[in-house]
Amino acid sequence: MKSPIIVALDSATQAEALAMADRLDPARCRVKVGKELFTAAGPAVVEALQVRGFEVFLDLKFHDIPNTVAAACRVAASLGVWMVDVHAAGGEAMLQAARRAVDSVSLPPLLIGITVLTSLAEHDLPRIGMQGPIATSVERLARLAQQCGLDGVVCSAVEAPVLRQALGAGFALVTPGIRPAGSAVDDQVRILTPYDALQQGATYLVIGRPVTQAADPAAALHSIFDSIVHP
Ligand code: C5P
């Protein structure tokens, strides 16, 4: 089975990220490179991870005019990454341009939409021009992403059942906020265990600190993988 685990390499330097990657098994996880690491280390860190056998989720959450996002997506796709993401709130033209851009390479990455950032609370929405419950906005933006040909969205595992029902089996749900039973919650609010998140309809699990801050990251990853395969 191809592992659904994506380990977030939230490091400030390439050396740190690669030291962590060297403790992980690419047969048990993919890795996520976010804004901090990519700003510090650029495409070189992506390539170094690929050389080590990892598939890379380049999590840069592009959000700009369609032409600019398309150009960025084309470059990201040409790095050979496995997954890239854009803000669904960038609108239909931007999402369609992103789709066409990633499809310009022979092995396109999965193109994933961000709906509503989970750091936003309901009371924040009116101040950024959104009304009503967060779940309604999440579903609306996820539907837009699907209509524009995106492969999935990032969402909380708590939102996964509703989105799975609304968007069907083939749409990828990428879920952070995952905590193995008994591990520190950190600053996450709505958390699920890896097994429960998959049961709720998640396709991929983004897991950071429970692996990267563990005394033995390899053992932590192994145990999470086992909890999914042999629950
Ligand atoms: O360490 P932890 O498991 O909380 O890391 C989760 C990763 O997922 C981090 O890289 C975080 O930025 C990211 N993320 C998140 N919640 C979102 C979107 C992304 O925690 N809604």
Describe, in plain words, how this protein is organized in 3D.
The chain is α/β, with parallel strands linked by helices. The protein has one domain: TIM Barrel, CATH 3.20.20.70. 40% of the residues lie in helices and 16% in strands. It has ten helices and eight strands. It has an eight-stranded parallel barrel, surrounded by six helices. Helix 1 links the parallel strand 1 and strand 2. The longest helix is centred in the middle third of the chain and has 14 residues. The protein is globular, with a radius of gyration of 17 Å. The model has no long low-confidence stretch (mean pLDDT 95). Bound molecules: cytidine-5'-monophosphate. Cytidine-5'-monophosphate binds next to strand 8.
Distance between the termini: 15 Å
| DSSP helix fraction | 40-55%
How many strand elements?
8
What is the assigned CATH homologous superfamily?
A: Aldolase class I
Supply the number of structural domains: 1
CATH topology: TIM Barrel
Which CATH architecture?
Alpha-Beta Barrel
Rg, rounded, reads 17 Å
Which sheet architecture does the biggest sheet show? Answer: 8 strands, parallel, barrel
Low-confidence stretches: none
Strand order of the largest sheet: 1-2-3-4-5-6-7-8
Question: Averaged pLDDT, please?
Answer: 95
Hey, roughly how much beta strand do the residues contain?
15-25%
